[in-house]
What does this fold into?
Amino acid sequence: MDIGPLKIEKDHQRFRQIVKGRIRKDLRRFLTRGELIGKEGKHLVSIPVPGIELPHFRYGDNNDQGVGQGDGDAGQAVDGAGVGPGGTEPGRHLLEVEISLEELADILGEELQLPRIEPKGQHNITAVKERYSSIRQTGPESLRHFKRTFRRALRRLIMSGVYDPDNPRIIFERSDKLYRSWKPIRKPQSNAVIVYMMDVSGSMGHEQKELVRLEAFWIDAWLRRNYDGIESRYIVHDVRAQEVDRETFFHLREDGGTKISSAFRCCQELLDKHYAASEWNIYLFHFSDGDNSSEADSRECCQILREALLPVSNQFGYCQVASAYGSGHFINVLREQLGTAENVVTSRVNTKDDIYDSIKAFFAKGR
It folds into this structure.
């Protein structure tokens, strides 16, 4: 019996477990690696994992001679050598592995001990999906179940006494062929919308935007692991607010002042128009450096949250990033005015290292 493929599969699974172990070990560091976002595919993200040696074949007689492109003598110079003195330390081996966003989110949840989210309200929309879960004797050739067809034909030849082990030819008859069949499955689908809001006034520079970008990536990863259908909407503001696309959200910068209530009003209009609380799980996240135009506007923000946004939301998260120009006062207003609200969570992110604790704070309640 050929066990080669089974052994390869077993080795592959063991390798995947090693990779996941390395990611868990250095999760805090991976959370801060902005290049991961750039390597994100539709369902996969590439992660450089150090220190994993892969077995490989090396051809040649290992006599330490030759220059890699034909015959050569020991000590012979190689054309195109690099500039500068050679190093004396061994290189650090980095292996890029692809891991699904779902696996990455699972690791995040396990390490941060995040409870799975229980969707709220009348949010379930029934989706009909086709699942190949049965076998039938008719169907298109593209759906023929080869293994079962082969086994059926082999059984027939052995029972009829015509099978020759020395000449093991298997000829299919029409009665041997079996085909995959499907049936519709009605599956509840939980929908959620994430509304990201951010201050893009002059005090929010590139460093602050990078912190927001990293935080939003992990927020997305965890919520998409908990819901079948996710929509993301983006609102930027200075003294006025507007909805924008994702690319604009992370790169737009204005020179004006800051009026946070404009973003909350824009968010309220967006939810009223497109996302009924009875059908959607709603997550709101606002990012700023804590600066606002006035105490009066901060009080208005709390009023909008209390009366319009919090009653329809699973959670409102406020993430305050450090800035040399922002006052950093808005987080104190929220904690004083709405600190007892169950679905309000605030966090400070002064450096990339704080993202780990911020994500845990946002989702520790499993809302």
Summary: The mean pLDDT is 78. The beta strands are 44-50, 94-100, 124-136, 179-199, 229-237, 241-244, 281-288, 315-321, 344-349.
